[in-house]
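Data deposition worksheet. Section B asks for the primary sequence of the deposited chain exactly as it was used as input, without tags or linkers unless they were present during the calculation. Section C holds the resulting structure in token form. Section D is free text for depositor observations; keep each observation to a single sentence. Incomplete worksheets are returned to the depositor.
Section A, Depositor: J.P.
Section B:
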Amino acid sequence: MIQSTRSIGKTLLPVLFSILVCLVHHYRLSLSAYPSGWDAYFYLIQVKAMVEEGAMHSPDSSPIYFLLKWLSQLTGDYESGFQLLCASMAALFTLVMSGLVLRLTSNNWLAFATGLYCLGSPTLAFFAANFPKNLLGIDFFLLLLFFSLQKKVVGTGISLALSAISHRMTAGLGLLFLGMKALTIRRLFVLLLGGLVLFGASLLVPGLIHLSDLARFEDAFTGTLQIPHYSFVQLLDLSNNQPFWVAEITLGLVCWIGMIIDWILRSKATTGFPGWYRGLLFLTLILFFPFLSMDMTSIGYRFFLTGMLFTPLWVASLLEHRSLGINLVFGILLVFGSIWGMGHINTSQYDPDYARYE
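Section C:
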């Protein structure tokens, strides 16, 4: 009976936090009469064309448009549907990330801490409000991490397919992760075969990753070495108007470096570097590559934000083997940080001035 109650508690914990995240994000977004982000009206035009003309203006197979269509019908208008869509993507991220941390560490406290982190994260709030399509792909990519951790081949394959359909970037991340995780000739051959199938599908299904996407990297690099975390803070002038976001970015950088050191030390103490960690570490080195240019239209901008979303994994990895006292101090800081974040996150200042053009 006690074991059954604990099992139910483990399941409910991520669910409850995801519902809370959805409510908080939706409330914050609904304070504006306009949808959030620079691409919002592109989403709305796509769905409106789908409903009224039977097809989107720009063909795309991502499930995000079908979700937006359904949510718009549920709320009664496209703008409200988009706001609920963004909040739902943040909630799904919280659900899968908390479940992944729970599976990775078997620690209820760390799953609880992950939920708190997502609740007060400015990065998640900004990403969900601006890039819901990317975030859906990342949510499915987290599912891929979850199933690959359990060595569930079918679940991993389905998650890879869903992340590939959702967004091109996460299709690439999924293939790179599995390639580095496998790192044997036989497994790499299977992965290469899967990549060829995906390429073949891209010729028939609009919106999938394609060789033409390499053009996105044409102006992606800079000759100047930079720390992407610092460059992002400078780009949005966060030090003057978003100190809590700066604190989160600093935490993300410190924990990422600490995680790398910790994993390397652990790999030396055991038989080798675990493939799951190796694949994830390889991805973060790409996402935080110090020669990617940083502006609001560059791929380095989205890469950095994507890398920051994995911070709960770095935190959980570092706290997993730490003393109760360290976990308690971090927990207290996290509770206050989440409460502060819920009340002070403001990403709407980076939205276009839609009211000006009415």
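Section D:
The two ends are 60 Å apart (CA to CA).
Residues 1-5 have pLDDT under 50 and may be disordered.
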